[in-house]
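Reopening: structure tokens for the NAP complex, inputs below.
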Amino acid sequence: MCTPHNNKTMTRVLSVPSAKASFEQTTIERRELRPHDVLIDIKFSGICHSDIHSAFDEWGGGMFPMVPGHEIAGVVEAVGSEVTKFTVGDRVGVGCFVDSCGECEYCLGGEEQYCTKGVVQTYNSLDYDGNPTYGGYSQKIVVTEGFVVRIPDSLEMDVASPLLCAGITTYSPLKHWNAGPGKKVAIVGMGGLGHVAIQFAHAMGAEVTVLSRSMNKKEEALSFGADHYFATSDPDTFTQLTGRFDLILNTVSANLDVNGYLSMLRVDGTLVNVGAPAEPDQYSVFSLIMGRRSIAGSLVGGIRETQEMLDFAAEHSITPMIEVINAGQVDEAYERVLRSDVRYRFVIDIATL
Ligand code: NAP
Ligand code: ZN
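Re-run output (same inputs, fresh job):
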């Protein structure tokens, strides 16, 4: 239900009152539309492992009550007086960020995620007025138009939603580190991010290898475009693949044997971490020195690049494999993600909230 109240929008949300608590259905206010704001009627909201790290307060600094969700797909319901990019009825998406300074070198360069003033995250963050942000496990959200992207017509809303985080978080580093023809790319971890990364790396023309803990996901990995698949539980994998890859994209939510993965890089190869375990990784500098190798990290992607990624996904028929759940199943879904018992992304049908 949406009841206007002082021109603010009341909206139902799923929120956690404290770290590791169960989800509750509550009501919050979304701000009155400013001239450049868009009011979005959310249709689907993906469940990213970052939502779990945050709702469990594993990274610290959690702000409660928390409404997670940064894989948002919906329809524009109203626009502010000066909005030019969107009209009512447009199919749109919102990802991990809802504001940035717009003036620093990174914002001007289209990489708002590295804004020097501090990018405003979609939830678990304070906006520039000091108000907490609440994310996409919600019926409605108000976002300034510069942080809203267009969902191409050929992408269904439910499968589009995970692209708003899992998609851009893997597309951006694959492009930045030049995944493409002639490049051998490994994707570590075949979860929400990993299964989309395989599709992007393949579409970019790279030779793609999946490194998963077991052989269980092999058939699906090949169907997503992987050329090779190995189980990291088999120690032979590491000897067999020594010096093999130009780029390894690590999407794993837990700490890994970093030295083992570095040994699989060619000279000048790079291990890029997007997986974000709470505890520090450990490695020997000799693993870098002996092959002039690099370790890097990457945060989501900018807004322009997010639109480019969606258009690329539409053009190459890249679609996350999803399991749609209702609003009452989110606690159970979190448990299942922690057991890697999901093929490969849960998406909440917001109509059930
Ligand atoms: P996910 O769906 O849970 O997938 C993670 C995958 O990692 C699992 O499917 C599993 O793949 C592997 N894995 C899990 N536990 C493991 C363990 N203990 N040891 C080895 N492998 C393990 O999670 P996700 O949503 O893709 O997110 C992955 C990570 O990326 C999270 O830490 C998340 O916070 C982070 N993230 C970062 C950014 C960024 O901007 N850098 C953005 C979004 C998410 P296999 O079964 O194939 O081994
Ligand atoms: Zn995410």
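Confidence is low (pLDDT under 50) at residues 1-5. The first strand starts at residue 4 and ends at 5. Marking as resolved unless the reporter disagrees.
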